[in-house]
Write a structure and sequence with these properties.
With 452 residues, the protein is of the alpha/beta class. Helix content is 38%, strand content 16%. Belongs to the glycosyl hydrolase 17 family.
Length: 452
Amino acid sequence: MVVLPYTVAFLLLSFLQTVKIANSQSFIGISYGQVGDNLPPPSSTAKLLQSTSIQKVRLYGSDPAIIKALANTGIGIVIGTANGDIPGLASDPDFAKSWINTNVLPFYPASNIILITVGNEVMTSNDQNLMNKLLPAMQNVQNALNDASLGGKIKVSTVHSMGVLKQSEPPSSGSFDPSYRDLMKGLLEFNSANGSPFAINPYPYFAYRSDTRPETLAFCLFQPNAGRIDGNTKIKYMNMFDAQVDAVYSARNSMGFKNVEIVVAETGWPFKGDDTDVGPSIENAKAYNGNLIAHLRSMVGTPLMPGKSVDTYLFALYDEDLKPGPGSERLSGLFKTDLTMIYDAGLSTSNQTQSPAASPQPSPTTTTTTTTTSNNNSSTSTSTSTGTGTSTSTGTGTNTISINICSSNNNSSSSSSSDINKVYLIKIFNLGLLYGFTRLSLICLFFYYLQT
């Protein structure tokens, strides 16, 4: 009985920590691109981020002014090497050490650098030289971190487009393109050995572009739809995001790396584009990002990864007026450069749940060929839709493959409303458990002291 008070105290503290974790939002991040000439100063951006529930920021480079501005904010920072740096990083360990000495050591730990991404969407760049040198570059960056005694504190990975998948529908049959298999195995072995995440860029927006039916738009925007049943698992998917992430989950598992964490390094929806762009609108962007945030906060997870939310970086913090490609590539920001919201996606700390978003706004334009760009290297690729509803890509830049899981509207309840209700239920449940556990602890303590 002597240990009873300590046991009760330990259990109570453990429970409080569990509740804290369940209600934290460390899984919400945002991409901070800098291909623009009108962006606000980093210090202003740091203050903006602190006024939101955003806990992580992904940079496509390693701008020292931004890294320094985020010091002592607690915000996790992802920094990246350029694709053009990969050959040098792969062939010269001293270059990797120099990169770490320049871009990490002057700022860490005041600036909470959590991940270094070596290149962006290299595997689908069609540059065989870069593809072959990606893993050696990652290994040299990891070795440089190890030499600086930061190997267990800052992770190293790379970011992939959905184009690395050969099959993504149904989600349970997700598999990597055989042409990338050996290289992907090496990258996953690296992730597994170093505890780093497998980072992917799923875009339901690209799926909608190749299948512009209203029911597909609803499925992509987390709005009422009939869903799509995976014939293998009999699981009904109610949104494209979950389906795409679970396809990656299945592909990873098929390679034997179930322990590797999956991170969504980039996803979003443009609010405006060119006349030929299909799907961009304020209503659709607000619906996708707002409902995605509510879905993440619900802690429901995906059907194959239930009970937790995947770390997700929204695209993007600001518009980038100098970015090449179609207008939709430049107009995906959640905030204006004057630091006001373009639309309210529910990121304000005073607004922790997102009200049901507006109905989707289908575009009257139908197109089968579009152009996308990679944020990191600004190269382009051509995406051509096929009759099967699967979008594949070819070209010199970022390849994209999107699963188009079709659905039709019916009287199903709104997925976004369901997620919002789950947020409230989780909070009520946690408070109820806390109240009950506290009473139980006090009763145990009472009887303990009564017997002593």
